[in-house]
Amino acid sequence: MNLADTLRGLWRRWYIVVPGLILTIAVAIAAWQYIEPDYEREGTQLLLPGLASIPESGNPYLYLGGLSQAADVVVTAMSSERELDALVRDYPGAEIVITRDPLTSGPQILTTVTAKSNAEAGKILVETMVRTTQVLGELQNVNGITARNRIGIESITVDNQSTLVQKTRLLGTGGATLGMLLITLLTAGLVEGLSTRKRRDGKAGGKKTDSLPSSAGTRRDRRAATQSLSRRSRRSRHLRRLR
Question: Basic residues: which segments have biased composition (predicted)?
Answer without folding.
Answer: 231-243
